[in-house]
Automatic annotation (TrEMBL):
Name listed for the protein in its UniProt record: AAA-like domain-containing protein
Pfam families linked: AAA_35 (PF14516)
InterPro entries named among the record's database cross-references: P-loop_NTPase (IPR027417), TPR-like_helical_dom_sf (IPR011990)
Species the sequence originates in: Kaistella pullorum
Highest taxon of source: Bacteria
Gene3D superfamilies hit by this protein: P-loop containing nucleotide triphosphate hydrolases, Tetratricopeptide repeat domain
Length: 840
């Protein structure tokens, strides 16, 4: 017998059992008239239903696009673009040639819904079949401000079929664990009510038997029926228990009803920590209304349970969708694990002890809710002050220091008075209030080594004092403390690790290298897994400064991250933590002539912690990091993995030695890269500002030749771009070119640039104050027109070329009163020297 019931992420076709929902979904897709809305509890096979539809219903004349919306986008336009990009990327053989048209649509800065509709129409014009867009985890959108717009746009696609016949071939399938009407935040808008609900229920008895048959389990009909008696067809439970039975069969055991009972008891009825029981119990814990409803069902008193609560019970996986005819807990396991005795015990858990437990485990948001409820009910000064103090600590750990201060700025009378003063001072330091450090210094000077809070005060005084010797003395006080009954050993270990780390940094600044490495090694010996990467990185940086070999330490750092399968750290005690924001620092740390460590880290993070190589490279290229060595490496060794925007970002970072120092050679490469890819790349506001900064620096550094050269490059580039930003930047680039020519005494060219500058300014319809405001425009006009040879040379305009100009017949009036008619080239020198003016 082979193993069939493996731990699949999604159920394969040979094990999938179709239910009523599958046939309903097929009909909706075949008809293409109304969107479907799959409404179901978690862990009921919702995603498998959708993927099975894609697997079986997709064809050469029908594309089915599955999109998981739990990976949220920050704004509406990115959400729409993700849908469009997914359609194209999954079907490049069909849509690749229209991607330039999509980019063109996006470059017009139209409203997000308009851009989305135009892109959809382009796709539907290219493909003459049906397109079904499946949006899974749609309830995740509820946390975003733009969610109403998404649902309004979906409704609009159906109502717009009159105007756009292509939309007849587009439909949506939405899926989530929330009622459609609850998705709309603004109740003044029409609710999303045009979809057909699809309820995904448990296996029927026949479907249960079909699954047993497909799984090839060699068990009696009696045992199969006994499983159904327990589980009542819950797909997740059926699969998991049958998988346990399969393991037992593979060991040569015979399966009886008693064995089934034992397997179910051991899996579900002891620890209550497996799906879906753990999820259901957690939902019930946090919903008093739900608890009361379940008590009523368990007591057969269901008359007063509202439809709203019934729908919630269904969405939480507690009852079936047929809740209007027979209201009962859906199976024996869920009934047992949500019994009245347990529900009553939960009431007692909503207590101070429960809140403290949440706080201790780092569930700060949940702890705040419980603490605040207790604070309203409690009349004891002792307990009230403890609650207030712990609410403040929750906000402190969440980084909301202002709210923490509100709770801590209180005259505590109990034993939390000392600790509250310390955390008040720490919070003030965090928001930049110098009074916080003064308070900590006063606390430390009084001396009290019997609490972890006091040691935290010492640590923060040490790391905020500029006196290195004084800081070391303070840190020595912490590292010398022994474990005792007053101090939590884990917290003490963390403080000692931090202290040795900061001592290492102080010795590094003092160039006492052996001491610095020694302190860092001690910190490493004390460290926990989440801080070890920072300490290894610190060691690498010290060894680099000393010119010592770092390969072994780099390999140790990377091997540790990979072997421990580290995730991003939530701790921020150190200047650099192993998290998304600080990734460039870690990659730069392991970079060297031997790129093995870098490549291993790149593969691990791209595959396990991020969505792929593109996201990883995007994080490395965050402009605030500005690590040239890293960019040079990506450009040389990862060039094949870079897209256009990433290549341009690299050249831009390499151009920026600092905000006041632009590498002009690299700037030229940056402009060239944009020019080559101008059809695919949309210039961002930050690009325009960077270009201006670079051009103005050429003037400030009196590098007038470069001012002319690169202004011309920029002007050539911007002639291919038409928008308000490009018009503004073109005007300033022309002005900078004029300044360069003026300073180098290129008078003919300066006259032409001056006139072009004025024309460019005239082309601006509405000023962008961040680039050019009314006063700056007026200042440029005055400066340009008040130079004599510019003011006098009225013949030059943007249409003249130099050869035409020099042979043109003009009438000039000299300062002596003499008037002559001649070719321009004959009076050019006198004109530029201010001896005459052109009157005709």
């Amino acid at each position: 017998m082979e193993r069939i019931l493996k731990n699949y992420t999604t159920i394969p076709d040979h094990l999938y059992v179709e239910r009523q929902a599958d046939y309903q979904l097929k009909n909706i897709i075949d008809e293409m008239q109304r969107p479907g809305y799959v409404l179901v509890a978690r862990q009921m096979g919702k995603t498998n239903l959708l993927l099975n539809a894609k697997r079986n219903l997709e064809s050469s004349k029908r594309l089915i696009i599955y999109i998981d919306l739990s990976n949220l986008y920050e704004n509406e336009v990115d959400c729409y673009r993700n849908i469009i990009d997914t359609i194209i990327e999954l079907n490049e053989n069909i849509f690749l040639e229209i991607t330039p048209n999509i980019d063109q649509i996006r470059g017009k800065n139209t409203p997000p819904h308009n851009e989305y509709l135009r892109s959809l129409l382009l796709i539907l014009q290219k493909f003459d079949g049906d397109i079904v867009i499946i949006l899974d985890e749609i309830d995740a959108l509820k946390s975003k401000t733009y969610s109403d717009n998404i649902f309004a746009q979906i409704r609009s696609n159906y109502f717009s079929r009159t105007n756009y016949s292509e939309l007849e071939r587009l439909t949506y399938i939405l899926s989530g664990v929330i009622e459609p009407t609850e998705l709309i935040k603004d109740k003044n808008k029409s609710p999303f009510n045009i979809g057909e609900k699809i309820y995904l229920d448990d296996f029927s008895f026949e479907e249960h038997n079909t699954f047993i048959y497909k799984s090839k389990l060699q068990i009696s009909n009696e045992c199969s029926d006994h499983i159904f008696e327990w589980i009542n067809g819950n797909p997740r439970m059926t699969f998991d228990i049958c998988s346990e039975i399969e393991k037992s069969l593979l060991k040569g055991n015979q399966i009886t009803n008693e064995i089934v009972d034992e397997l179910i008891h051991n899996k579900y009825l002891i620890a209550f920590d497996v799906a879906p029981v753990d999820h259901i119990r957690e939902l019930i814990k946090n919903d008093e209304e739900l608890r009361e409803a379940i008590k009523c069902i368990q007591s057969n008193k269901t008359v007063h349970i509202t439809d709203e609560i019934k729908r919630k019970l269904y969405l939480f996986g507690i009852i079936s969708s047929d809740f209007n005819s027979n209201l009962s807990i859906k199976n024996r396991i869920i009934s047992y694990t949500t019994n009245i005795e347990w529900l009553n015990s939960l009431e007692n858990e909503i207590s101070y002890a429960n809140a403290i437990s949440k706080y201790s485990h780092g569930f700060y948001h949940e702890a705040i809710g419980t603490f605040e409820a207790l604070l309203k009910e409690n009349n004891s000064v002792l307990i009230s002050e403890q609650i207030r103090y712990h609410i403040a600590l929750c906000y402190y750990h969440l980084g909301d220091f202002e709210t923490a201060i509100e709770y801590l700025d209180y005259e505590f009378q109990t034993d939390v008075e000392f600790d509250s003063r310390v955390f008040l001072a720490l919070s003030e330091i965090k928001i930049g209030n110098i009074n916080g450090l003064k308070t900590l210094e006063e606390i430390v000077s009084n001396g009290n080594t019997n609490s972890i809070t006091f040691l935290m005060a010492i640590l923060n005084v040490a790391i905020n004092t500029p006196d290195g010797k004084k800081a070391l003395d303070f840190l020595d006080l912490i590292t010398a403390v022994n474990d005792n009954i007053y101090i939590n050993s884990k917290e003490l270990q963390e403080l000692k690790t931090l202290s040795h780390f900061f001592k290492s940094n102080i010795y590094e600044k003092q160039e006492q290298w052996d001491e610095s490495i020694n302190e860092n090694n001690i910190a490493l010996s004390l460290s926990t897994a989440d801080v070890r990467p920072i300490l290894l990185l610190n060691k690498i940086n010290i060894l680099k400064i000393l010119g010592r070999d770092t390969n072994d330490t780099k390999q140790e750092l990377v091997n540790f991250i990979v072997s421990e399968r580290l995730n991003f750290s939530e701790q921020n005690y150190y200047p650099v933590s192993f998290n998304r924001i600080n990734l460039p620092v870690f990659f730069n740390g392991v970079l060297g002539s031997d790129t093995t460590a870098f490549d291993i880290l790149f593969t691990y993070i791209s595959t396990n912690l991020l969505k792929g190589e593109k996201e990883c490279i995007d994080l490395l290229l965050k402009e605030e990091n500005n690590i040239p060595e890293l960019c040079e490496y990506l450009l040389s060794d990862k060039r094949d993995k870079l897209d256009t925007s990433q290549s341009i970002a690299i050249y831009r970072i390499l151009s920026s030695r600092s905000s006041q120092d632009i590498d002009i050679v690299k700037f030229k490469l940056y402009i060239d890269e944009i020019s080559v890819n101008i059809k695919d790349y949309i210039l961002q506001e930050s690009d325009y500002m960077f270009i201006l900064n670079a051009l103005f620096q050429t003037i400030h550094k009196k590098n007038f030749k470069n001012a002319i050269t690169y202004s011309e490059e920029v002007l050539t580039l911007l002639r291919q771009v038409e928008n308000n930003f490009s018009t503004h930047v073109s005007a300033l680039a022309q002005y900078i070119k004029f300044i360069g020519e003026l300073q180098l005494n290129f008078k003919i060219q300066a006259v032409e640039s001056a006139n072009k500058t004025l024309v460019q300014l005239d082309n601006i319809k509405e000023f962008i104050p961040e680039i050019i405001d009314v006063s700056l425009a007026a200042s440029i006009r005055d400066q340009v027109t008040n130079i004599p040879f510019v003011r006098n040379n009225k013949i030059v305009n943007q249409n003249n070329n130099q050869s035409t100009l020099r042979n043109q017949i003009v009438t000039a009036k000299y300062n002596t009163g003499k008037i002559i008619k001649s070719k321009f080239k004959h009076i050019e020198k006198d004109l530029l020297d201010g001896k005459c003016i052109i009157i005709e």
